[in-house]
Amino acid sequence: MNPIENLNASITRRHFFHKSALGIGTFALGSLLEPTSVGVGRTTLPHFAPKAKRVIYLFQNGAPSHVDLFDYKPKLREWHGRQIPERLIAGKRFSTMTGKQVNRPVLGEITNFKQHGQSGAWVSDFMPRTAEIADELCFIKSMYTEQVNHAPAITFFLTGAEMAGRPSMGSWLTYGLGNMSEDLPGFVVMTSRDKERSCGQIFYDFYWGSGFLPSKFQGVKFRGGGDPVLYLSDPQGMSRKMRRELLDGLEALNQQNLKEYGDPEITTRIAQYEMAYKMQMSVPELTDLSSEPTYILDMYGPDVLRPGSFAYNCLMARRLIERGTRFVQCMHAGWDQHKNINHQLKIQCQDTDAPSAALVKDLKQRGLLEDTLVIWGGEFGRTPFLQGRIQDFKVWGRDHHPYVFSLWMAGGGVKPGFSFGASDEFGFNPQQDPVHVHDFQATIMHLLGIDHERFTFKHQGRRYRLTDVHGHVVHDVIA
Q1: Angle subtended by helix axes 264-286 and 240-261, to nearest 10
Q2: Which of 125, 282, 373, 399 makes the best surface tag, with the fewest CB within 10 Å?
Q3: pLDDT of amino acid 197
Q4: d(Cα 168, Cα 406) in Å, to the nearest integer?
Q5: Residue ranges of the chain with pLDDT lower than 50?
């Protein structure tokens, strides 16, 4: 048999289809490079003039207690120790920690509330710095969700679905709007936790994953110690020139594979290698705080120089968006206070109150708050009734409460000094203008100039969006 016949005989069915698919793969790659051809309309985004260009999401894992921090309910002290009305809990689902609890005594707020600013916003005395910026904040006090446990509830807030696998909000926005920085990622994630390590919350990677979007749009996690990004430093003995030559060689190999296989993820690999190279210069400058005035550092609090703290991450968030990062997600765990709310809530507030308020003040004095949306909140609230027995003061706590809770926003086109929605007299259910998670997501996208119903991505035969098939923009909170 001659060599050509021998080669033809050796071609397997799998190899044939692989080679035949090259044209299809190249077309798919072209669709990513020319997004309008797949109907996503990325090049036409934003759909209308945006009020915000960037987002800093201060996500409070574990669920802060709305009735102890921002939703003042005098009825709770009046009913303290008494059984909560049966009409409120009938048919409701709670976590396994109180699901079978027979007695559910009302727990009065363990903080004191005062009104602040011209807006008269009620804020707990555990949040004195947040109280100082009350007139900058837009509170939503009628949030509700469908999930009663942490991981699915957080996933629902950040991806629009309770099951892992969908793109996170930061991925959607960087995919649609692009990155404003050439040498830093468009989507950065930083995590921190309470000093006492009282909460076992896990930071799952899918909280900032890109799902079915190209993986170049997943969040880049900055670590809390050592190099913020792994392998940021060159190996010992490798010069900058040698690193460049190595990357050029890798790119040549990847380009060759791209021509042969047409896999869009190869373009992601090329782009990520280049971004890593650029970050070797940009990240050391980003994390060098020597240029920050003392009064700024003091404003963020004593932990600001400790990498991995919430205060440090808040300052990094400001520095990142200054340099063009589109979406920064700071996640802080420690709010899951089932049996320690009477002493740990204050500690948690001390760790997060000053940095959160400082970030808003810092952005405003730099002229960045106007088009930067800051969000503060968790995945649900906490029950107005006690988990456990009223006699056991040392282990007082509150269970998960998805039926109504509070969060706040600042800047980015929302109304300052404004409260929207209301819960009932026990802080148990929405009483006025309920806001679902999908409504909240639709509103965020609207502030960024995106019609959430038009911004879709086709995957496995159907078009997906962050808000699934739900969501209404809450126009009343928009300035």
Answers
A1: 160
A2: 125
A3: 67
A4: 21
A5: 1-4, 6-8, 10-11, 13-41
Cα gap 402→345, rounded to integer Å: 19
Strand 422-423 with 418-420, pairing: unpaired
What's the pLDDT tens digit per position in 146-198?
999 999 999 999 999 999 999 999 999 999 999 998 889 999 999 999 876 66
Rounded distance between C-alpha atoms, residue 263 and residue 242, angstroms? 28
User: What is the pLDDT at residue 231?
Assistant: 64
Mean pLDDT of the chain: 87
Q: Tokens in use for 60?
A: 């409070």
C-alpha atoms less than 13 angstroms from C-alpha of 307 in its C-beta half-sphere? 12
Dihedral of CA atoms 83, 84, 85, 87 in degrees, nearest 10, equals -130
Residue 261 has what pLDDT?
A: 73
Six-digit token string for 206: 């899918």
pLDDT for 37 equals: 30
Identify the CA nearest to 171 among candidates 58, 42, 313, 317: 42
Asked if 279 and 183 touch (Cβ cutoff 8 Å), the reply is yes
Q: How far is CA 312 from CA 233, 290, 302, 354, in A?
A: 21, 14, 10, 11
Contact 89, 443 (CB under 8 A): no
Is the Cβ–Cβ distance between 60 and 178 less than 8 Å? Answer: no
Distance of CA 462 to the CA centre of its chain: 25
> Amino acid letter at 473?
V
pLDDT at 257: 78
SS (H, E, C) the chain: CCHHHHHHHHCCHHHHHHHHCHHHHHHHHHHHHCHHHHCCCHHHCCCCCCCCCEEEEEEEECCCCHHHHCCCCHHHHHCCCCECCHHHHCCCCCCCCCCCCCCCEECCCCCCEEEECCCCEEEECCCHHHHHCHHHEEEEEEEECCCCCHHHHHHHHHHCCCCECECCHHHHHHHHHCCCCCCCCCEEEEEEECCCCCCCCCCCHHHHCCCCCCHHHCCEEECCCCCCCCCCCCCCCCCHHHHHHHHHHHHHHHHHHHHHHCCHHHHHHHHHHHHHHHHHHHHHHHCCHHHCCHHHHHHHCCCCCCCCCHHHHHHHHHHHHHCCCCEEEEEEECCCCCCCHHHHHHHHHHHHHHHHHHHHHHHHHCCCHHHEEEEEECCCEECCECCCCCCCHHHCCCCEECCCEEEEEECCCECCCEEECEECCCCCCEEECCEEHHHHHHHHHHHCCCCCCCCCEEECCEEECCCCCCCCCCHHHEC
